[in-house]
């Protein structure tokens, strides 16, 4: 069971991204959170998942202490229940920037309205954007340690995928090199060589990921004014809006997958000067969101997370 990480090995960022970067893993957790699924056959009947994939994912979730197996059921642990901010952030980004009509709507039980979550600073309650947060590696940080391992990350094949797709989210985090590129972009990389150095990937892979990110509008390539033969890559508004997903994954990872040396990444909120810990609030009433107060509505059915 994963409770603490070994010194010098993959850190909280690598482990947490390795978990959330798998479509079927997210799908299983989502249905456990929103529909209360807990039995093997319930997941098997809920979507086009094979027995082999379901068995593998459930075993991994138990190993990661996200589910616990008891009396023929798979029940969410506290670690698993605390994944709801990640799912809400992913849905909100896809709904805003990808027009993903297949995703459920979110209703705040306290104010009764359909909402989109806003990212705020735990310390000062201010709504926070990517430009308001500075990041630097902590004691267990570093590029090599922060890149997810490839063996636990695989996207579902076309035609045999979860019904509620977060396709562009998976394009950004469903591959170890894509995740590394997202991190490099948010930590200030703009030139091809910077991405190549930080990702530690072959040039062909870096070029392919940069092209993909530009194609979906997360990055934009512009000529370097100082070097005509160089191209610079900058996050677009759509790319910067992905920050709540990044922040909630990092926060969850740091809470539940501790490296003995300390945190992998330190985030600072520039407006209040304190350590940045994300929280979500209702975009309609401004109240802090809690899992029990969020209702997920799909096909006229509503269930609390």
Automatic annotation (TrEMBL):
Q: Which UniProt keywords apply?
A: DNA-binding, Transcription, Transcription regulation
The answer to whether the entry has keyword Transcription is yes
For this protein, the record's Pfam families field holds: HxlR
Q: Which organism is it from?
A: Kibdelosporangium philippinense
HTH hxlR-type domain segment(s): 9-102, 161-261
Against InterPro entries, the record matches this protein to: HTH_HxlR, WH-like_DNA-bd_sf, WH_DNA-bd_sf
Q: Does the keyword Hydrolase apply?
A: no
Q: What is the protein name given in its UniProt record?
A: Helix-turn-helix transcriptional regulator
């Amino acid at each position: 069971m994963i409770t603490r990480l070994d010194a010098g090995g993959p850190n909280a960022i690598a482990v947490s991204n390795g978990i959330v970067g798998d479509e079927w893993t997210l799908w299983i957790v989502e249905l456990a959170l929103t529909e209360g699924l807990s039995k093997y056959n319930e997941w098997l009947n809920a979507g086009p998942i094979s027995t082999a994939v379901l068995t593998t994912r459930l075993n991994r979730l138990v190993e990661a202490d996200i589910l616990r197996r008891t009396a023929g059921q798979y029940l969410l642990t506290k670690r698993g229940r605390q994944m709801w901010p990640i799912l809400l952030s992913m849905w909100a980004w896809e709904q805003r920037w990808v027009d993903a009509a297949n995703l459920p709507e979110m209703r705040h039980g306290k104010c009764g309205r359909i909402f989109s979550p806003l990212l705020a600073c735990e310390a000062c309650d201010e709504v926070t954007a990517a430009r308001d947060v500075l990041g630097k590696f902590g004691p267990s940080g570093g590029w090599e340690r922060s890149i997810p391992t490839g063996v636990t990350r695989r996207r579902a094949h076309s035609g045999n995928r979860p019904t509620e797709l977060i396709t562009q989210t998976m394009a950004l985090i469903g591959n170890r090199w894509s995740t590394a590129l997202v991190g490099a972009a948010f930590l200030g990389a703009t030139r091809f060589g910077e991405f190549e150095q930080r990702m530690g990937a072959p040039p062909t892979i870096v070029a392919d990921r940069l092209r993909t990110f530009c194609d979906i509008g997360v990055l934009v390539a512009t000529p370097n004014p100082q070097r005509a033969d160089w191209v610079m890559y900058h996050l677009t508004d759509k790319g910067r809006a992905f920050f709540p997903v990044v922040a909630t994954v990092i926060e969850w990872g740091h809470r539940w997958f501790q490296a003995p040396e300390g945190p992998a990444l330190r985030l600072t909120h520039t407006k209040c000067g304190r350590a940045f810990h994300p929280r979500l609030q209702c975009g309609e009433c401004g109240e802090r969101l809690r899992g029990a107060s969020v209702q997920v509505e799909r096909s006229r059915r509503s269930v609390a997370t």
